[in-house]
């Protein structure tokens, strides 16, 4: 059942307690309750569902009732700016508010995870069945002929999350595709970026259903399981810490979960007979571990928390993708800019979507994505990617003005080419600001804090400019907007990058896996918190390195394997 208050629960003891009904948490909840002998409680801080119109993602965050409204520390690499850092705080977590791009990363990304952890189970070949297990490839909402835009046999066809191609053609689609014909060396066409070999320009794939709704972990994994009698879901309740009631095999056994509905409300506790599974995401999972006395002794002592388990890497190695929107004025009146400026038009389009499921509101922002290596003449540059099949940079062409940093100009129509450092060197951290679980943690994603990442970002901007040299953009692109136009030297481009970069909202690594014997890292390859009993982490914080991809498909796949690892221990 679904409960809104801990006092409503019929019991205070479950086999498994899942903290966070987010992307990963709902996979765990669904798969564990397939075993009718297991009882599972999921505790979620946020509220229940929302409207599911795909493009409205940009109105879901930051600073809404659906998000943790975090702000980063002043980012040195961003010329001292602090930026909004939203995470989903709702059933489905960030899968309910994200931009729905569906990418699996490369073979090398997964194989690196296997190498670093010493567990072949994380390799591409062994994870592919789990990646497919989440997917159900469906027709795009407008049911056009998608042949040549995706390779259906590479995909899953019976999984819970519906995957489709973009449902609204834009005027730049053909221009992007013509670029691949004119410059196939630098911008080859890739018939499906989710084959394990993502490099090139390919059609975007999205977690959007065939009837033009968002497919989230709430709609795909949680709702279908809600009627199971062995599953309870408690919302609007924040877990405040985990407590160890006993020692097992010489290690503290974290079986008690403490929670509250607000900082002033009473604390409740529930206990897990088998395991507690932390699925609170890359910001809140390290926060909860530290609140529970698991972390670096000095850092814990500064906020007055007694250390129970020494794990210096908790909250460290936070890694994210820096995201920079570059803009050009274009000769068109068909870009999405008129929707952003005209509320009457936006309302009409929303009505069109509600009635027909069609229209411009199905434009995900980007219909194609470029995953690229740096050009040959930059080959001497240091490389943090997982290997030759992994992207170093990503480009996202958008038919309109997109930015998380600048407001849309009052007039004009625009092209945006977002440039992203997909395999960054920079690292940051999540630490406690106090021992109060209701205080925001200190979030420092360290965006562009390593100078090489700034150099790579400049190469990404220049690569986007080379893309626009194709004849298909002639007569359409007029000129770069003023800040980009003024950045006429590499040094100025570096400064421009620091002034306008923000986040792709992809934090990972803050509770990373390492090999079983390694003294660093936070988790064993089977996702147990090292030095503890009864406690695992399953969410974006587990990745030892950031995959060169949008992360949700990778998180779902990790959670599918994690569910099998847990079942194997208890069935
Ligand atoms: C704005 C935005 C856009 C994005 N766009 C894309 C995209 O287009 N494509 C893509 O692949 N990825 C995208 N991502 C990234 C992707 O959505 C995330 O990497 C992924 O969803 C993370 O999953 P998770 O399970 O780690 O955490 P989440 O899905 O965030 O789940 C964590 C859950 O735990 C809950 N929680 C946290 N703390 C507590 C607590 N103390 N007590 C109880 N509950 C708690 C949260 O409320 C949340 O529901 C985007 C992310 C954001 C924020």
Automatic annotation (TrEMBL):
InterPro entries: FAD/NAD-bd_sf, GMC_OxRdtase, GMC_OxRdtase_N, GMC_OxRtase_C. One of its GO terms (molecular function) is flavin adenine dinucleotide binding. Pfam families: GMC_oxred_C, GMC_oxred_N. It comes from the Eukaryota. FAD binds at residues 90, 239. Keywords: FAD, Flavoprotein, Signal. Its cofactor is FAD. Transmembrane segments: none annotated. Residues 88-111, 281-295 form the Glucose-methanol-choline oxidoreductase N-terminal domain. The active site is at 506 (proton donor), 550 (proton acceptor). Belongs to the GMC oxidoreductase family. This is Aryl-alcohol oxidase-like protein. It comes from Obba rivulosa. The lineage of its organism: Eukaryota, Fungi, Dikarya, Basidiomycota, Agaricomycotina.
């Amino acid at each position: 059942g679904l409960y809104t208050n801990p006092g409503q629960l019929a019991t205070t003891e479950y086999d498994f307690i899942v903290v966070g009904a987010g992307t990963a948490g709902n996979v765990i909840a669904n798969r564990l309750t397939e075993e009718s002998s297991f009882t599972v409680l999921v505790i979620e801080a946020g509220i229940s569902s929302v409207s599911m119109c795909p493009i409205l993602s940009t109105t879901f965050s930051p600073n809404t009732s659906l998000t943790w409204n975090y702000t980063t520390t002043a980012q040195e690499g961003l010329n001292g700016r602090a930026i909004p850092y939203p995470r989903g705080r709702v059933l489905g977590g960030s899968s309910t508010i994200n931009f729905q791009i569906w990418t699996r990363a490369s073979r090398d990304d997964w194989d690196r995870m296997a190498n670093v952890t010493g567990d072949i189970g994380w390799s591409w070949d062994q994870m592919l069945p789990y990646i497919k297990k989440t997917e159900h490839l469906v027709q795009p909402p407008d049911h056009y002929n998608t042949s040549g835009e995706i390779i259906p046999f590479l995909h899953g066809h019976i999984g819970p999350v519906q995957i489709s191609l973009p449902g609204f053609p834009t005027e730049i689609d053909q221009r992007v595709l013509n670029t691949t014909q004119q410059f196939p060396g630098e911008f080859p066409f890739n018939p499906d970026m989710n084959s394990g070999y993502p490099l090139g320009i390919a059609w975007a794939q999205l977690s959007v259903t065939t009837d033009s709704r968002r497919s989230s972990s709430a709609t795909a994994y949680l709702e279908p399981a809600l009627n199971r009698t062995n599953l309870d879901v408690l919302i609007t309740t924040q877990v405040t810490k985990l407590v160890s009631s006993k020692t097992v095999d010489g290690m503290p056994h974290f079986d008690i979960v403490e929670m509250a509905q607000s900082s002033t409300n009473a604390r409740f506790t529930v206990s897990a007979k088998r395991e507690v599974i932390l699925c609170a995401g890359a910001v809140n999972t390290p926060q909860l571990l530290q609140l529970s006395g698991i972390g670096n002794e000095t850092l814990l002592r500064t906020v007055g928390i007694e250390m129970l388990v020494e794990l210096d890497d908790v909250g460290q190695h936070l890694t994210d993708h820096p995201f920079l929107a570059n803009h050009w004025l274009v000769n068109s009146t068909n870009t999405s800019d008129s929707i952003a400026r005209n509320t009457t038009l936006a309302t009409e389009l929303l009505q069109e979507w509600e009635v027909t499921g069609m229209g411009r509101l199905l434009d995900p922002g980007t219909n194609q994505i470029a995953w690229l290596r740096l050009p040959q003449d930059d080959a001497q540059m240091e490389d943090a990617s997982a290997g030759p099949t992994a992207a170093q940079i990503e480009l996202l062409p958008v038919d309109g003005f997109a930015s998380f940093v600048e407001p849309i100009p009052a007039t004009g129509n625009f092209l945006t080419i977002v440039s992203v450092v997909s395999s960054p060197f920079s690292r940051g951290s999540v630490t406690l600001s106090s021992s109060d679980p209701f205080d925001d943690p200190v979030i420092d994603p360290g965006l562009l804090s390593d100078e090489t990442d700034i150099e790579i970002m400049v190469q990404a901007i220049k690569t986007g400019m080379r893309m626009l040299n194709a004849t298909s953009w002639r007569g359409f692109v007029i000129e770069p907007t003023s800040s980009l136009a003024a950045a006429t030297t590499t040094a100025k481009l570096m400064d421009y990058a620091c002034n306008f970069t923000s986040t792709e909202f992809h934090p990972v690594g803050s509770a990373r896996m390492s090999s079983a014997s390694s003294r660093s890292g936070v988790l064993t390859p089977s996702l147990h918190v090292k030095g503890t009993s009864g406690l695992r982490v399953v969410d974006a914080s587990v990745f030892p390195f950031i995959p060169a991809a949008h992360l949700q498909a990778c998180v779902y796949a990790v959670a599918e394997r994690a569910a099998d690892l847990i079942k194997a221990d208890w069935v």
